[in-house]
Design brief:
Distance between the termini of chain A: 29 Å
Strand content of chain A: 15-25%
Helix content of chain A: 25-40%
Radius of gyration of chain B: 24 Å
Number of helices of chain B: 14
Chains: A alpha/beta, B mainly alpha, C alpha/beta
Number of strands of chain A: 12
Radius of gyration of chain A: 20 Å
Shape of chain A: globular
Largest sheet of chain A: 8 strands, mixed
Largest sheet of chain B: none
Distance between the termini of chain B: 36 Å
Oligomer: heterotrimer
Order of helices and strands of chain B: HHHHHHHHHHHHHH
């Protein structure tokens, strides 16, 4: 087992109290698994991703553990996490463009980064070159400045860099969202290739775009208002969603071929609850067409079938 | 060109604002950080202390700055709190009246410069095109002219008679950097959606600038004004010190000028030159420290909690 | 109704326009009453610039944009006012469309004071209610609120309601749902569909092909400032003729069809990322009823 997250709660401190951005997440990611995390803004998916690698100043871990390859990660301790970052857990940031220092040549920047982690640049160089070539970047990219690269190229450089130490877990947060459709596909497919080549063991891909996950993820975890809603194999989640939220969400996505004139799709009425003082019971209750009294009690995130989990009283059937 | 990040709002940070609406506490919030900002508080206290001295100080003495007839070159005593000058004038009254004219010059010159800078910066940044290019050229020309040299020449020939004309002269030469800064801010705000929307709602240029753009950079304008104020105080002191300011009005620079020409430094009459020196340094320094503090308050990225 | 004819926009850069950048080049199309035309392009395609030129927020370098036969570029202050009474826009970012310092009512009030000054409070309320109704917003839910108190979907619907306060004939909708969450964006999209049925002409600018496909009657594919393909939406999507359109379509992530099901698309997908300039002559060739494609043989 690669990654095990147990009852993780991460809150944001604000002037008016804690915002329960991630409120009890329990799941595992297997070796070699690409798990997609999907959800709308404010569902806690980015908080989840951050808490696996680096908390920002306003976040605190209220409860829970994260275990990677049998070792518990000291996620609340920024210093102690340094031992694990980059070598064991790595992240590809959303805006790779801004992650690159504009006045450093790419090679120099990589060399500085490696030496700060105690890795020799010269020894790593052959492997670095090999991997850059693999993602279609020429050798001379190391002598260039970030401004000379296109968005997709930068994203690829950052991906190669993030996975250079063959980390056990790679977190990719909205990796493709700022890219054009054509570049998006190439970058997304690279995630699969990196996994296939063993550059990373497991990958967590965080995005608001379910259809990207259907393309590249093995499993999909759907989140809503800080809670896990549903998890299962990608095809099953998209073809046979069990949780009403997932069902409505998928039904609201227009695809090429679906036209307003022929088939009118509908959205989900209402908006997510405030996580400052979240309601009790199922958090989707207020917007759920199936909600009944029993939903006032919080549904547990249970295994419906092997590999399929959902948190809904109505999904059990 | 149009490469806007399409999903900027799907990031959790923005989502937090979105999903957990904060009540409109922005001004209140600024105050919250303001009272906790040491730089701002220290700068403000210093500047306010001198302002109070400038306003109330003259009431505490019967002496006037140019009045002779007091003991010659006496150190501070209970009769003359800051001593007297070599020709027998009261240093305290010179100092407090001098403070007054410093503040007046600063305020007037900063107002003139701010108005000019805003007019040129707003119009250039908002209208763009040829208007902007012409205004930019003018701004750059005034910017590279050695201001002080021009001031010295101009005031030498025109023999500045009053504080107001001195302030006007300073104001007319110190606006360019303000105009450039405001232009840059306006330029970035002008492409924002709410500005486009105001135009689509039939708002004219002046209204769009006054009601949409200016309120969104009010803190910035305030900072600009403070910097202009500090700069004007310093330039005025320099001119007065060189004897190019109004000679009928006492100022801190004129005090220094008198002190130096009477060899106060060599004669060890410290009470003559230290008060004006300290006054100028403290006001200008206080304003700049205040500016740094305010910047931290207004700019959340610089805030340290 | 709206006719865009050979429009080109060159941005000048540097002092006195020493440099220049062509954002839009020879774009022609029209929008008729009661139809949604989608303008689809990737970043840098010039799609937003086209929208801004139609709204006269920026002027065209060459070519004409005319509304009901009148050249938009020639409008003086008066004419522009009348123009905005019939043509309105909604923009991408709902949070930046509202001045954050003020209540949302302000954007509505601005329109009232400039366009409907004669209206009594009673009449104004009635007008307001009916346009809020048209976008299915409850007045009590939105009026008197600050922008951050409303959701992105509510804000965008309010923006449309604002445009409907005037009896507009054309709406330029620039990426109006790209910042909304999936579960709420479809409602805003449906709203555009309903307005279209009431006779409104809509220019729907987007980078998202599936959204354009869902809502529009005709589609324009824009690439680096040039029209690549133009035609009825079912044809452009069902029978794309230009290699760029095909490449784009093959890259769209679908929910029920995998990329890997389609062969030979990855080479095309790399195309979009390359820095090579592929110029096309600009001349469009008719390939079917109302369906035009740019010629591809003039590759540089």
């Amino acid at each position: 087992m690669s990654l095990a997250v147990d009852n993780l709660r991460v809150y944001y401190r604000t002037l008016r109290g804690d915002v329960r951005a991630l409120d009890g997440a329990t799941f595992t990611v297997q070796d070699g698994e690409i798990m997609g995390v999907a959800g709308e803004s404010g569902c806690g998916k980015t908080t989840l991703g951050k808490s696996l690698i680096r908390l920002d100043g306003r976040m605190r871990v209220a409860e829970g553990t994260v275990t990677l390859d049998g070792v518990e990660l000291p996620i609340a301790d920024d210093r102690a996490m340094d031992t694990y970052r980059f070598r064991h857990v790595s992240i590809v940031p959303q805006y790779a463009m801004s992650a690159l220092n504009p006045i450093r040549r790419i090679g120099r920047m990589i060399s500085e980064l490696l030496s700060s982690r105690g890795v020799s640049y010269d020894e790593t160089l052959p492997e670095l070159r090999r991997r850059l070539a693999l993602v279609g970047l020429e050798d001379d990219v190391l002598d260039r400045y970030p401004i000379e690269l296109s968005g997709g190229m930068k994203q690829r450089v950052v991906m190669v860099l993030s996975t250079l130490m063959n980390p056990s877990l790679l977190v990719a947060d909205e990796l493709t969202s700022a890219l054009d459709v054509s570049t998006q596909k190439a970058v997304a497919e690279m995630l699969v290739e990196f996994r296939d080549r063993g550059f990373v063991k497991s990958t967590i891909v965080i995005t608001h775009d379910l259809s990207i996950l259907y393309q590249i993820a093995d499993t999909i975890l759907v989140m809503y208002a800080g809670k896990l809603v549903e998890k299962g194999p990608a095809a099953e989640i998209t073809e046979d969603p069990r949780h009403p939220y997932t069902r409505l969400l998928i039904a609201s996505l227009p695809e090429v071929g679906v036209r307003f004139e022929e088939r009118r799709l509908t959205g989900i009425a209402g908006r997510p609850p405030s996580l400052l003082r979240p309601p009790t019971g199922c958090r989707f209750r207020a917007r759920c067409p199936l909600a009944t009294e029993e939903c006032a009690e919080e549904p547990p995130f249970v295994e419906l079938a092997p590999g399929r989990h959902a948190a809904c009283w109505k999904a059990a059937a | 060109m149009v490469a806007t990040p399409e999903i900027a709002l799907t990031g959790e940070g923005a989502a937090l604002e979105d999903a957990y609406p904060e009540p409109p506490v922005r001004r209140f919030e600024a105050l919250h950080f303001a009272v906790r900002n040491a730089k701002l508080v220290v700068g403000l206290v210093v500047v306010l202390a001198f302002l109070v001295a400038a306003i109330a100080g003259p009431w505490l003495t019967d002496a006037t700055p140019f009045e002779f007839g007091y003991p010659l070159g006496e150190p501070p005593s209970s009769a003359h709190w800051l001593g007297t000058t070599a020709p027998g004038q009261d240093v305290y009254s010179q100092f407090v009246y001098g403070l007054r004219s410093s503040f007046v010059v600063g305020a007037l010159a900063a107002t003139v410069a701010a108005l000019l800078g805003m007019a040129i910066g707003f119009l250039g940044g908002y209208l763009g095109g040829v208007v902007d290019e012409v205004l930019s050229v003018i701004t750059n020309i005034v910017l590279v002219i050695p201001t002080l040299a021009v001031l010295i020449i101009v005031s030498a020939y025109l023999s500045v008679g009053s504080v107001a004309s001195e302030a006007l002269l300073i104001g007319l030469t110190s606006w360019p950097w303000a105009a450039r800064a405001i232009r840059a801010q306006t330029f970035s705000l002008a492409s924002r959606d709410f500005v486009s929307l105001a135009r689509l709602s039939g708002q004219g240029t002046v209204k769009v600038i006054a009601k949409e753009i200016a309120p969104n950079m009010s803190s910035y304008l305030f900072l600009t004004f403070i910097l202009l104020f500090g700069g004007a105080v310093l330039i005025a002191a320099t001119l007065d010190f060189l004897g190019l300011g109004p000679s009928q009005v006492m100022s801190l620079g004129l005090m220094l000028n008198n002190a130096v020409s009477n060899a106060a430094l060599q004669l060890g009459m410290w009470w003559w030159f230290i008060p004006p020196g300290v006054g100028i340094t403290a006001i200008v320094g206080g304003l700049y420290i205040m500016n740094v503090g305010l910047d931290e308050v207004f700019n959340p990225k610089l805030r340290r909690t | 109704m709206l006719r865009v004819d050979g429009v080109t926009k060159v941005f000048r850069t540097g002092l006195f326009g020493s440099g220049s950048q062509t954002a839009v080049s020879g774009v022609s199309f029209d929008v008729r009453p009661g139809e949604v035309v989608s303008l689809i392009g990737e970043s840098g395609s010039g799609k937003t610039t086209v929208g801004r030129m139609i709204l006269r927020l920026t002027t065209a370098t060459a070519g004409t944009i005319s509304f009901e036969g009148e050249d938009v570029a020639g409008f003086g202050r008066r004419d522009l006012r009348r123009y905005y009474a019939r043509v309105q826009g909604v923009f991408q970012d709902p949070f930046s469309s509202y001045n954050p310092v003020f209540k949302v009512d302000r954007v509505l009030g601005m329109l009232r004071s400039n366009y409907l000054p004669g209206l009594s409070d009673q009449e104004w309320k009635r007008t307001l209610r009916s346009s809020l109704e048209a976008v299915s917003l409850e007045p009590a839910d939105v009026l008197g609120k600050y922008p951050h108190q409303l959701s992105g979907g509510q804000l965008q619907r309010l923006m449309v309601a604002r445009a409907l306060l005037l009896e507009i004939e054309l709406l330029v909708a620039d990426e109006i749902i790209s910042m909304l969450d999936a579960s709420t964006r479809i409602d805003v999209l449906n709203l555009l569909g309903d307005l279209k049925r009431r006779g409104l002409g809509i220019l729907f600018i987007t980078h998202d092909l599936s959204l354009g496909n869902y809502i529009s009657d005709r589609t324009l594919i824009l690439r680096r400032g040039r029209v690549v393909e133009l035609g009825p939406t079912p044809k452009v999507f069902g029978d794309p003729r230009h290699s760029y359109t095909r490449a784009l379509l093959s890259c769209v992530p679908q929910l029920h069809r995998k990329w890997s099901d389609e062969a030979g698309s990855s080479a095309a997908s790399e195309n979009g990322d390359s820095t090579a300039v592929i110029a096309n002559g600009g001349g469009l060739v008719a390939v079917g009823d109302d369906h035009f494609v740019a010629s591809e043989d003039e590759r540089a």
